[in-house]
Amino acid sequence: METLIHQFFNLDVMLQAWPIVWRGLILTLLLCLAVIPLGLIGGLVVALANTSRHRAVRWVTVVFVDFFRAIPPLVLLIFVKEGLPFAGIRFSPFVAVCVAFLLNNSAYYGEIFRAGIESIGTGQMEAARSTGLSSFQAMTYVILPQAARNVLPDLLSNTIEVVKLTSLASVVAFHELLYSADMARSVTYNASPIVMAAAIYLIMLLPVVRILGRLENRMST
Amino acid sequence: MSSWQRFAEAFLDWDVIVQYLPAIGSGLIVTVEIAALVVICGIVLGLVLVVLRSYRITVVNWLIIAFVDTLRSVPPLVLILLLYFGMPNIGINMGGFVVVWLVLTLVLAAFAEEIFWAGLLSVDKGQWQAARSTGLGYTQALIYVVMPQAVRMTIPPLTNRTIAITKNTALGTVIGVAEIMNEATTAVSFSGNASPLFVGALAYVMLFVPVVYLGRWIETRFAWRKN
Predict the structure, then answer these.
(1) In CATH, what class is B2-226?
(2) B75 touches chain A (CB under 8 A)
(3) Contact state of A82 with B197 under an 8 Å Cβ cutoff
């Protein structure tokens, strides 16, 4: 029991590791601020392309979505960071993470927005168009606001997943929370910094998970 | 033309692909093994937890909720590193394969429990009462009447979540499990060519595209039950 506490809940080690873990946390938050909006915008573009009149455009979006939903984000990230340099395309860790996440998250957010748009009856679009709005205006002012509200729990749930996914950035040596904690672990030979990182993720995401649970219950009843 | 040549040289070097195909094939088997074990154990454990929770024993429910919320909030990679590097310090050596299996099983169990629980709550109270009035005990009513209906309703969200968690088997590469990605990156560093990485990514796509389609089919197949 004592070794367990010493190895996993060692306050001295945690205090020692805190400055570096703190810097990691800041970078994790910055990364979230970059990849979540990018993914939302990408997803919106994908969902709108999916409503296109041209069959080829729709076909491309379906292939895009299925491909990037099938490939694990870590595989994509390693491919972008370690594979593309062989073709002369070199990214910094931050940009590599942004590129990989943009592709992956656009597919996921895109599917959610698509479900939202499909949940709005065609009568809405017809009514909006009949008032003289262009189809772009009808989409922006009439369909999308309702669609986004219908899929709010799914958007939130996916955003939680995105925040958790940012921990993958540690694999390509971006100095975010998990990378910093793991570095502290390897220096101190003690797992407490990782426990601390886990606790930080828990504190950040638990309230959102709880709100999500309540939101899902309210939407279903 | 030259950019295409450059791409082909970097990613489609046939000799390199042939040389490392067996290694990636064995990685594929490891990936499928972990994935299958995770799906089976995770869903069974999720079912066990939801049955336990349905008895509404306060202390047990607190523990289950704490377990579920923790595993839903903490990234799996954090847990994998924690177990892989932390446990040996207290004398428990599990090896990478077991660590990945254990972490992903627990994560899937947590999500599955939450999904099953939502399904359980959505089963009409009358079903409980009718079942009990025919003389079934609580557990019998739960297992024979309520759970079958609840589970059916939860199939679409459960499929999606299961696919997402199974894809996390790729995380094993970080702690040296010899799955597809690990074999591929090793091959890249030996051959100095990115073709194995390309083949590895392709292997994942071939593995999971059918699963994504299956998920989509299941979703439409069961969608009408919501209304």
Answers:
(1) mainly alpha
(2) yes
(3) yes
